[in-house]
Specification:
Largest sheet: none
Shape: globular
Order of helices and strands: HHHHHHHHHH
Number of domains: 1
Number of strands: 0
Distance between the termini: 92 Å
Radius of gyration: 22 Å
Number of helices: 10
């Protein structure tokens, strides 16, 4: 058994442990899509390992078809993290806020799409170029979402012990590493021995992310803090403006009855 095979088996074992930890800790109640994402990753790695060993000629063909559901799940996870952070004040938010969040994430993806071409390795086939381009766009989007959550952590009243930021930290960490590896690959030949070791380093970082998630989700979740006064005021203004608009349109009655003019 070579290094890559042994490392793949160890990674699958850690993924099994992570899925068990998430289920035992009932993380699916607050982060269901994140749990689906980890289970999906386990299913892909296990099936790809078998496919690579038994039918290597079909490996890349099937791998390309996995890209669409994988990207859709990751897109959902990013929306879920943003929506979960707003959990303490969801009742104060206007209806349709989650769709606004989805639109913002999608808009960010559209902006990132042309920028992701800067990380594409040269001499790729048309299909391979599209595949890598799609992967890099999702990776950059994960990094952006992590940086936004980390940058506004004080305003959002979240810390490194909160599940949402822990999940985003893991996603952001191995996404940054994968982007760095892609940039370095663009200046290397596939025949360069360092090319393979860079891929292995990305795998090691993903293994570290899985281990980090296992440790985080195995510990007791702390109680969420209240939002900062600035954020509460902003949300009140948003919800008040939305309510005023609905009242004007006659969707809902105002809180207090109108007095009849004598």
């Amino acid at each position: 058994m070579n290094f890559d095979s042994a490392f793949l088996i160890v990674g699958i074992v850690v993924e099994v442990v992570l899925v068990c930890v998430l289920i035992s800790g009932k993380a699916y109640k607050t982060l269901p899509l994140f749990c689906v994402y980890t289970a999906w990753g386990l299913l892909l790695d296990a099936s790809n390992a078998i496919l690579l060993a038994k039918l290597p000629e079909y490996y890349w063909k099937i791998y390309l078809f996995e890209l669409i559901p994988d990207a859709a799940i990751q897109f959902g996870v990013l929306i879920e993290l943003a929506w979960s952070i707003l959990r303490p004040v969801r009742t104060s938010l206007p209806r349709g806020t989650i769709f606004i969040l989805a639109g913002l994430v999608a808009l960010a993806g559209l902006v990132i799409w042309p920028l992701a071409t800067l990380t594409l390795p040269p001499n790729l086939s048309v299909h391979a170029q599209l595949f890598v381009h799609f992967q890099q766009t999702i990776a950059i989007l994960r990094v952006v979402c992590f940086l936004v959550l980390a940058g506004f952590s004080q305003v959002l009243s979240i810390g490194w012990k909160d599940r949402e930021l822990q999940a985003a930290t893991g996603l952001g960490f191995f996404s940054i590493v994968s982007l760095l590896v892609a940039v370095l690959h663009s200046h290397q030949s596939p025949l360069d021995p360092a090319y393979t070791w860079l891929d292995r380093s990305a795998g090691i970082c993903y293994f570290g992310t899985l281990t980090y998630w296992v440790i985080c989700f195995a510990t007791k979740e702390q109680q969420r803090k209240e939002f900062s006064p600035q954020m509460q005021q902003l949300l009140v203004l948003m919800s008040g403006g939305a309510r005023a608009g609905r009242i004007a349109l006659g969707d809902i009655p105002p809180q207090s009855p109108r007095k009849r003019i004598k």
